Amino acid sequence: MKNTYHRLREEGAALRSLAKGLLPWAAAIVVLLMLPHVFAANSTITIMNQMAITIIFALSYNMLLGQAGMLSFGHAIYLGFGGFICIHVMNYLQAAGVPIPLPFLPLFAGLFSMGMAMLIGSFSTRRSGTVFAMISLGVVELVTSYSIIGYSFFRGGGVGGDRTLGVPFFGIEFLRQIEVYYLISFWLVASVSLMYLFTQTPMGRMANAVRDNPERAEFLGYSARWVRFFSFCAAGFFAGVAGGLFAINYELASAENLSVQASGAILMIAFLGGIGVFWGPILGAVLFTLLQTVLSLHTDLWQLYVGAMFLVTVMFFPSGLAGVLMMHVSVIRQNGLYGLLGPYFRTVGPAAIGILGVCALVELVFHSRHLARGGQEMTLFWITFQTVHPAPWLIAAGVATAGIWISKRNAPQLSKVWQPHIINP
Protein backbone atom coordinates (compact mmCIF):
# COMPACT_ATOMS: atom_id res chain seq x y z
CA MET A 1 0.00 0.00 0.00
CA LYS A 2 2.80 2.37 0.89
CA ASN A 3 4.67 1.67 -2.35
CA THR A 4 1.46 2.21 -4.33
CA TYR A 5 0.93 5.55 -2.58
CA HIS A 6 4.46 6.74 -3.42
CA ARG A 7 4.10 5.55 -7.01
CA LEU A 8 0.83 7.47 -7.39
CA ARG A 9 2.46 10.57 -5.93
CA GLU A 10 5.35 10.31 -8.39
CA GLU A 11 2.96 9.82 -11.31
CA GLY A 12 0.88 12.78 -10.18
CA ALA A 13 3.97 14.97 -9.90
CA ALA A 14 5.07 13.87 -13.38
CA LEU A 15 1.65 14.70 -14.82
CA ARG A 16 1.66 18.12 -13.16
CA SER A 17 5.13 18.80 -14.52
CA LEU A 18 4.01 17.73 -18.01
CA ALA A 19 0.91 19.93 -17.82
CA LYS A 20 3.02 22.86 -16.63
CA GLY A 21 5.39 22.38 -19.59
CA LEU A 22 2.58 22.08 -22.13
CA LEU A 23 0.62 25.08 -20.82
CA PRO A 24 2.70 27.77 -22.66
CA TRP A 25 2.43 25.82 -25.91
CA ALA A 26 -1.34 25.45 -25.55
CA ALA A 27 -1.66 29.16 -24.77
CA ALA A 28 0.43 30.06 -27.83
CA ILE A 29 -1.77 27.88 -30.07
CA VAL A 30 -4.93 29.52 -28.71
CA VAL A 31 -3.45 32.97 -29.33
CA LEU A 32 -2.53 32.01 -32.91
CA LEU A 33 -6.05 30.77 -33.55
CA MET A 34 -7.64 33.97 -32.20
CA LEU A 35 -5.33 36.59 -33.72
CA PRO A 36 -6.87 36.74 -37.22
CA HIS A 37 -10.30 37.24 -35.67
CA VAL A 38 -9.06 40.09 -33.48
CA PHE A 39 -7.00 41.71 -36.29
CA ALA A 40 -9.08 40.84 -39.32
CA ALA A 41 -7.64 43.27 -41.90
CA ASN A 42 -5.77 41.58 -44.74
CA SER A 43 -2.80 43.92 -44.31
CA THR A 44 -2.53 42.99 -40.63
CA ILE A 45 -2.77 39.28 -41.41
CA THR A 46 0.01 39.71 -43.97
CA ILE A 47 2.18 41.31 -41.29
CA MET A 48 1.43 38.40 -38.93
CA ASN A 49 2.36 35.95 -41.70
CA GLN A 50 5.67 37.70 -42.20
CA MET A 51 6.20 37.69 -38.44
CA ALA A 52 5.65 33.93 -38.22
CA ILE A 53 8.03 33.26 -41.13
CA THR A 54 10.68 35.46 -39.53
CA ILE A 55 10.28 33.59 -36.23
CA ILE A 56 11.04 30.25 -37.90
CA PHE A 57 14.00 31.77 -39.74
CA ALA A 58 15.37 33.44 -36.60
CA LEU A 59 15.09 30.26 -34.53
CA SER A 60 16.84 28.28 -37.26
CA TYR A 61 19.68 30.80 -37.13
CA ASN A 62 19.77 30.51 -33.35
CA MET A 63 20.44 26.77 -33.79
CA LEU A 64 23.74 27.86 -35.33
CA LEU A 65 24.74 30.85 -33.25
CA GLY A 66 22.98 30.42 -29.93
CA GLN A 67 23.11 26.62 -29.65
CA ALA A 68 26.30 25.63 -31.51
CA GLY A 69 28.25 28.91 -31.42
CA MET A 70 28.64 29.20 -35.22
CA LEU A 71 28.55 32.80 -36.43
CA SER A 72 27.25 32.63 -40.00
CA PHE A 73 26.99 35.50 -42.46
CA GLY A 74 25.31 33.35 -45.10
CA HIS A 75 22.36 31.64 -43.44
CA ALA A 76 19.92 33.43 -45.75
CA ILE A 77 20.91 31.29 -48.74
CA TYR A 78 18.94 28.38 -47.25
CA LEU A 79 15.91 30.61 -46.96
CA GLY A 80 16.38 31.52 -50.62
CA PHE A 81 16.93 27.91 -51.71
CA GLY A 82 13.72 26.90 -49.95
CA GLY A 83 11.75 29.67 -51.61
CA PHE A 84 12.98 28.91 -55.12
CA ILE A 85 12.46 25.15 -54.89
CA CYS A 86 8.99 25.69 -53.40
CA ILE A 87 7.95 27.84 -56.38
CA HIS A 88 9.44 25.38 -58.86
CA VAL A 89 7.72 22.41 -57.23
CA MET A 90 4.44 24.33 -57.04
CA ASN A 91 4.54 25.16 -60.74
CA TYR A 92 5.56 21.61 -61.69
CA LEU A 93 2.80 19.98 -59.65
CA GLN A 94 0.21 22.28 -61.19
CA ALA A 95 1.45 21.65 -64.74
CA ALA A 96 1.70 17.87 -64.26
CA GLY A 97 -1.52 17.56 -62.30
CA VAL A 98 0.16 15.75 -59.40
CA PRO A 99 -2.30 15.66 -56.44
CA ILE A 100 0.02 17.02 -53.74
CA PRO A 101 -1.66 19.91 -51.88
CA LEU A 102 -0.01 23.19 -50.96
CA PRO A 103 0.57 22.53 -47.20
CA PHE A 104 3.17 19.85 -48.04
CA LEU A 105 5.38 22.13 -50.14
CA PRO A 106 7.37 23.61 -47.19
CA LEU A 107 8.55 20.06 -46.51
CA PHE A 108 10.10 19.87 -50.00
CA ALA A 109 11.68 23.28 -49.40
CA GLY A 110 13.16 22.18 -46.08
CA LEU A 111 14.56 18.95 -47.49
CA PHE A 112 16.16 20.72 -50.46
CA SER A 113 17.76 23.34 -48.22
CA MET A 114 18.98 20.61 -45.89
CA GLY A 115 20.59 18.89 -48.87
CA MET A 116 22.37 22.13 -49.79
CA ALA A 117 23.39 22.56 -46.15
CA MET A 118 24.86 19.04 -46.19
CA LEU A 119 26.88 19.95 -49.27
CA ILE A 120 28.14 23.28 -47.95
CA GLY A 121 28.52 22.05 -44.38
CA SER A 122 30.71 19.15 -45.50
CA PHE A 123 33.62 21.60 -45.82
CA SER A 124 32.53 24.70 -43.88
CA THR A 125 31.91 22.97 -40.53
CA ARG A 126 35.44 21.54 -40.47
CA ARG A 127 36.47 24.86 -38.97
CA SER A 128 34.86 27.09 -36.37
CA GLY A 129 35.10 30.65 -35.14
CA THR A 130 36.32 33.35 -37.48
CA VAL A 131 37.28 30.89 -40.24
CA PHE A 132 33.74 29.48 -40.36
CA ALA A 133 32.29 33.00 -40.45
CA MET A 134 34.53 33.97 -43.38
CA ILE A 135 33.66 30.78 -45.26
CA SER A 136 29.96 31.52 -44.83
CA LEU A 137 30.50 35.05 -46.11
CA GLY A 138 32.31 33.73 -49.18
CA VAL A 139 29.58 31.16 -49.86
CA VAL A 140 26.76 33.71 -49.72
CA GLU A 141 28.61 36.00 -52.12
CA LEU A 142 29.14 33.11 -54.54
CA VAL A 143 25.51 32.01 -54.41
CA THR A 144 24.23 35.56 -54.79
CA SER A 145 26.46 36.13 -57.81
CA TYR A 146 25.44 32.82 -59.39
CA SER A 147 21.74 33.62 -58.91
CA ILE A 148 22.09 36.32 -61.56
CA ILE A 149 23.43 33.95 -64.21
CA GLY A 150 21.85 30.65 -63.13
CA TYR A 151 18.71 30.96 -65.21
CA SER A 152 17.65 27.30 -65.02
CA PHE A 153 17.00 27.51 -61.27
CA PHE A 154 17.07 31.17 -60.24
CA ARG A 155 15.53 32.51 -63.49
CA GLY A 156 17.76 35.54 -63.41
CA GLY A 157 16.94 36.47 -59.83
CA GLY A 158 13.23 35.83 -59.41
CA VAL A 159 10.43 33.41 -60.19
CA GLY A 160 6.72 33.54 -59.38
CA GLY A 161 3.77 31.19 -59.10
CA ASP A 162 0.10 30.99 -58.18
CA ARG A 163 -0.75 29.03 -55.04
CA THR A 164 -4.47 28.92 -55.86
CA LEU A 165 -4.08 26.70 -58.93
CA GLY A 166 -3.06 23.60 -57.01
CA VAL A 167 -5.10 20.74 -55.61
CA PRO A 168 -7.56 21.96 -52.89
CA PHE A 169 -6.74 20.80 -49.37
CA PHE A 170 -10.04 19.58 -47.85
CA GLY A 171 -11.83 22.12 -50.05
CA ILE A 172 -9.46 24.99 -49.14
CA GLU A 173 -7.96 26.71 -52.19
CA PHE A 174 -5.96 29.33 -50.23
CA LEU A 175 -7.64 32.21 -51.98
CA ARG A 176 -7.99 34.22 -48.77
CA GLN A 177 -5.13 35.53 -46.69
CA ILE A 178 -6.55 34.03 -43.49
CA GLU A 179 -6.27 30.56 -45.02
CA VAL A 180 -2.59 31.16 -45.73
CA TYR A 181 -2.24 32.43 -42.15
CA TYR A 182 -3.45 29.15 -40.68
CA LEU A 183 -1.16 27.20 -43.00
CA ILE A 184 1.83 29.25 -41.85
CA SER A 185 0.70 28.99 -38.21
CA PHE A 186 0.63 25.19 -38.47
CA TRP A 187 4.19 25.11 -39.76
CA LEU A 188 5.19 27.69 -37.15
CA VAL A 189 3.98 25.50 -34.28
CA ALA A 190 5.48 22.35 -35.83
CA SER A 191 8.85 23.99 -36.55
CA VAL A 192 9.19 25.71 -33.17
CA SER A 193 8.24 22.47 -31.39
CA LEU A 194 10.77 20.42 -33.34
CA MET A 195 13.53 22.99 -32.83
CA TYR A 196 12.81 23.05 -29.10
CA LEU A 197 12.85 19.26 -28.94
CA PHE A 198 16.20 19.32 -30.77
CA THR A 199 17.67 21.40 -27.96
CA GLN A 200 16.60 18.69 -25.48
CA THR A 201 18.24 15.83 -27.40
CA PRO A 202 21.79 14.61 -26.70
CA MET A 203 22.85 16.22 -29.99
CA GLY A 204 21.42 19.56 -28.89
CA ARG A 205 23.14 19.29 -25.51
CA MET A 206 26.43 18.43 -27.18
CA ALA A 207 26.03 21.45 -29.46
CA ASN A 208 26.03 23.59 -26.31
CA ALA A 209 29.14 21.77 -25.08
CA VAL A 210 30.94 22.29 -28.40
CA ARG A 211 29.95 25.96 -28.31
CA ASP A 212 31.37 26.45 -24.80
CA ASN A 213 34.42 24.16 -24.89
CA PRO A 214 35.09 22.15 -28.04
CA GLU A 215 38.36 20.75 -26.65
CA ARG A 216 36.61 19.19 -23.66
CA ALA A 217 33.91 17.74 -25.95
CA GLU A 218 36.64 16.16 -28.07
CA PHE A 219 38.30 14.81 -24.92
CA LEU A 220 35.02 13.14 -23.92
CA GLY A 221 34.93 11.32 -27.25
CA TYR A 222 32.56 13.54 -29.26
CA SER A 223 33.52 14.95 -32.64
CA ALA A 224 33.04 18.71 -32.54
CA ARG A 225 33.05 18.80 -36.32
CA TRP A 226 30.16 16.30 -36.66
CA VAL A 227 28.15 18.05 -33.94
CA ARG A 228 28.51 21.31 -35.85
CA PHE A 229 27.63 19.53 -39.11
CA PHE A 230 24.38 18.03 -37.79
CA SER A 231 23.36 21.34 -36.22
CA PHE A 232 24.18 23.08 -39.49
CA CYS A 233 21.99 20.68 -41.49
CA ALA A 234 19.07 20.97 -39.05
CA ALA A 235 19.28 24.77 -39.19
CA GLY A 236 19.31 24.60 -42.99
CA PHE A 237 16.15 22.48 -42.99
CA PHE A 238 14.11 24.92 -40.92
CA ALA A 239 15.48 27.91 -42.85
CA GLY A 240 14.25 26.15 -46.00
CA VAL A 241 10.81 25.70 -44.41
CA ALA A 242 10.74 29.44 -43.72
CA GLY A 243 11.73 30.10 -47.34
CA GLY A 244 8.95 27.84 -48.62
CA LEU A 245 6.40 29.64 -46.47
CA PHE A 246 7.72 32.98 -47.73
CA ALA A 247 7.21 31.81 -51.33
CA ILE A 248 3.69 30.58 -50.57
CA ASN A 249 2.75 33.79 -48.80
CA TYR A 250 4.07 36.19 -51.46
CA GLU A 251 3.87 33.78 -54.45
CA LEU A 252 7.39 34.89 -55.31
CA ALA A 253 10.99 33.78 -54.80
CA SER A 254 13.58 36.50 -55.13
CA ALA A 255 17.38 36.63 -55.12
CA GLU A 256 17.11 39.28 -52.38
CA ASN A 257 16.45 36.45 -49.93
CA LEU A 258 19.87 34.99 -50.80
CA SER A 259 21.87 38.14 -50.17
CA VAL A 260 24.27 38.98 -47.39
CA GLN A 261 21.86 41.76 -46.36
CA ALA A 262 19.21 39.16 -45.51
CA SER A 263 21.79 37.21 -43.51
CA GLY A 264 22.80 40.36 -41.68
CA ALA A 265 19.17 41.13 -40.90
CA ILE A 266 18.59 37.73 -39.29
CA LEU A 267 21.79 38.15 -37.28
CA MET A 268 20.42 41.48 -36.05
CA ILE A 269 17.06 39.90 -35.20
CA ALA A 270 18.68 37.12 -33.18
CA PHE A 271 20.83 39.54 -31.19
CA LEU A 272 17.96 41.94 -30.54
CA GLY A 273 15.85 39.15 -29.09
CA GLY A 274 18.68 37.38 -27.29
CA ILE A 275 20.59 34.31 -28.41
CA GLY A 276 21.05 32.95 -24.89
CA VAL A 277 17.39 32.00 -24.49
CA PHE A 278 15.44 29.75 -26.85
CA TRP A 279 12.50 32.13 -27.19
CA GLY A 280 14.74 35.20 -27.51
CA PRO A 281 14.78 35.22 -31.34
CA ILE A 282 10.98 35.06 -31.26
CA LEU A 283 10.91 38.43 -29.48
CA GLY A 284 13.49 39.78 -31.92
CA ALA A 285 11.46 38.62 -34.92
CA VAL A 286 8.28 40.21 -33.59
CA LEU A 287 10.04 43.50 -32.77
CA PHE A 288 11.91 43.70 -36.08
CA THR A 289 8.83 42.91 -38.17
CA LEU A 290 6.81 45.58 -36.39
CA LEU A 291 9.58 48.13 -36.90
CA GLN A 292 9.99 47.17 -40.54
CA THR A 293 6.30 47.27 -41.40
CA VAL A 294 4.86 49.89 -39.06
CA LEU A 295 7.74 52.31 -38.52
CA SER A 296 8.55 52.36 -42.23
CA LEU A 297 5.09 53.77 -42.91
CA HIS A 298 5.92 56.90 -40.90
CA THR A 299 9.57 57.58 -41.71
CA ASP A 300 12.14 56.83 -44.39
CA LEU A 301 14.82 56.54 -41.71
CA TRP A 302 13.50 53.41 -40.01
CA GLN A 303 16.67 51.48 -40.86
CA LEU A 304 18.72 54.13 -39.07
CA TYR A 305 16.69 53.66 -35.89
CA VAL A 306 16.86 49.87 -36.12
CA GLY A 307 20.61 50.06 -36.59
CA ALA A 308 20.97 52.36 -33.59
CA MET A 309 18.83 49.99 -31.50
CA PHE A 310 21.03 47.07 -32.54
CA LEU A 311 24.17 49.00 -31.62
CA VAL A 312 22.80 49.92 -28.19
CA THR A 313 21.70 46.32 -27.60
CA VAL A 314 25.13 44.89 -28.41
CA MET A 315 26.95 47.48 -26.31
CA PHE A 316 24.75 47.66 -23.21
CA PHE A 317 22.39 44.64 -23.33
CA PRO A 318 24.39 41.80 -24.93
CA SER A 319 21.88 39.24 -23.67
CA GLY A 320 19.15 40.92 -25.73
CA LEU A 321 15.55 41.62 -24.84
CA ALA A 322 15.03 38.09 -23.51
CA GLY A 323 18.03 38.45 -21.22
CA VAL A 324 16.68 41.71 -19.79
CA LEU A 325 13.31 40.07 -19.15
CA MET A 326 14.95 37.07 -17.49
CA MET A 327 16.86 39.42 -15.17
CA HIS A 328 13.54 40.78 -13.95
CA VAL A 329 12.13 37.29 -13.35
CA SER A 330 14.57 36.76 -10.48
CA VAL A 331 13.73 40.25 -9.15
CA ILE A 332 10.02 39.41 -9.19
CA ARG A 333 10.69 36.18 -7.29
CA GLN A 334 12.51 38.21 -4.64
CA ASN A 335 9.59 40.68 -4.45
CA GLY A 336 11.96 43.46 -5.42
CA LEU A 337 10.18 44.81 -8.48
CA TYR A 338 8.31 47.47 -6.50
CA GLY A 339 11.59 49.04 -5.40
CA LEU A 340 12.68 49.42 -9.02
CA LEU A 341 9.57 51.26 -10.24
CA GLY A 342 10.60 54.65 -8.89
CA PRO A 343 14.19 54.60 -10.22
CA TYR A 344 12.93 53.26 -13.54
CA PHE A 345 10.40 56.08 -13.82
CA ARG A 346 13.06 58.71 -13.03
CA THR A 347 15.71 57.22 -15.34
CA VAL A 348 14.07 55.36 -18.23
CA GLY A 349 11.23 57.89 -18.63
CA PRO A 350 13.47 60.92 -19.26
CA ALA A 351 15.74 58.75 -21.43
CA ALA A 352 12.79 57.83 -23.65
CA ILE A 353 11.76 61.47 -23.92
CA GLY A 354 15.33 62.48 -24.75
CA ILE A 355 15.52 59.81 -27.47
CA LEU A 356 12.31 61.17 -28.98
CA GLY A 357 13.93 64.61 -29.02
CA VAL A 358 16.98 63.22 -30.81
CA CYS A 359 14.71 61.49 -33.35
CA ALA A 360 12.89 64.77 -33.91
CA LEU A 361 16.19 66.52 -34.64
CA VAL A 362 17.18 63.76 -37.07
CA GLU A 363 13.84 64.01 -38.87
CA LEU A 364 14.15 67.79 -39.07
CA VAL A 365 17.62 67.55 -40.58
CA PHE A 366 16.49 64.89 -43.07
CA HIS A 367 13.43 66.90 -44.09
CA SER A 368 15.39 70.15 -44.50
CA ARG A 369 17.99 68.40 -46.65
CA HIS A 370 15.42 66.72 -48.94
CA LEU A 371 12.54 69.20 -49.02
CA ALA A 372 11.07 70.19 -52.34
CA ARG A 373 10.59 73.73 -53.48
CA GLY A 374 8.01 75.34 -51.22
CA GLY A 375 7.85 72.22 -49.01
CA GLN A 376 8.80 73.76 -45.66
CA GLU A 377 5.73 72.29 -43.97
CA MET A 378 6.33 69.14 -41.94
CA THR A 379 4.25 66.87 -39.70
CA LEU A 380 6.09 65.30 -36.76
CA PHE A 381 4.43 63.47 -33.88
CA TRP A 382 1.06 64.50 -35.33
CA ILE A 383 2.02 68.20 -35.15
CA THR A 384 2.30 70.26 -38.35
CA PHE A 385 4.74 73.19 -38.44
CA GLN A 386 7.12 75.13 -40.69
CA THR A 387 10.70 73.84 -40.64
CA VAL A 388 12.09 77.30 -41.47
CA HIS A 389 11.03 78.56 -38.04
CA PRO A 390 13.64 78.11 -35.27
CA ALA A 391 11.07 77.06 -32.64
CA PRO A 392 10.78 73.35 -33.65
CA TRP A 393 14.57 73.04 -33.72
CA LEU A 394 14.99 74.68 -30.32
CA ILE A 395 12.21 72.59 -28.75
CA ALA A 396 13.61 69.33 -30.12
CA ALA A 397 17.14 70.19 -28.99
CA GLY A 398 15.89 71.26 -25.54
CA VAL A 399 13.84 68.07 -25.06
CA ALA A 400 16.76 65.87 -26.16
CA THR A 401 19.26 67.65 -23.93
CA ALA A 402 17.01 67.80 -20.86
CA GLY A 403 15.82 64.19 -21.15
CA ILE A 404 19.29 62.71 -21.57
CA TRP A 405 20.77 64.91 -18.81
CA ILE A 406 18.06 63.96 -16.29
CA SER A 407 18.40 60.29 -17.18
CA LYS A 408 22.18 60.38 -16.78
CA ARG A 409 21.87 62.15 -13.45
CA ASN A 410 19.46 59.52 -12.08
CA ALA A 411 21.29 56.51 -13.56
CA PRO A 412 23.57 55.98 -10.50
CA GLN A 413 20.49 55.64 -8.27
CA LEU A 414 19.05 52.95 -10.54
CA SER A 415 22.40 51.14 -10.58
CA LYS A 416 22.53 51.29 -6.76
CA VAL A 417 19.06 49.76 -6.46
CA TRP A 418 19.97 47.02 -8.95
CA GLN A 419 23.27 46.14 -7.21
CA PRO A 420 21.85 43.72 -4.61
CA HIS A 421 19.96 41.79 -7.29
CA ILE A 422 23.11 41.49 -9.40
CA ILE A 423 25.15 40.20 -6.46
CA ASN A 424 22.43 37.82 -5.27
CA PRO A 425 20.43 36.76 -8.37
UniProtKB/TrEMBL annotation:
PANTHER family per the record? ABC TRANSPORTER ATP-BINDING PROTEIN, HIGH-AFFINITY BRANCHED-CHAIN AMINO ACID TRANSPORT SYSTEM PERMEASE
Its GO CC terms? plasma membrane
Q: Where in the cell is it found?
A: Cell membrane
Q: What topology in the membrane does the UniProt record assign? A: Multi-pass membrane protein
Cross-referenced Pfam families, in alphabetical order? Answer: BPD_transp_2
Give the protein's recorded name.
Branched-chain amino acid ABC transporter permease
- Parts of the chain that traverse the membrane: 21-39, 45-64, 76-94, 100-120, 132-154, 180-198, 226-250, 262-290, 302-327, 347-366, 378-406
InterPro entries given for it? ABC_transp_permease, LivM-like
Keyword annotations for this protein, in alphabetical order, are: Cell membrane, Membrane, Transmembrane, Transmembrane helix
GO MF terms, alphabetically ordered: branched-chain amino acid transmembrane transporter activity
> Which superkingdom does the taxonomy of this entry point to?
Bacteria
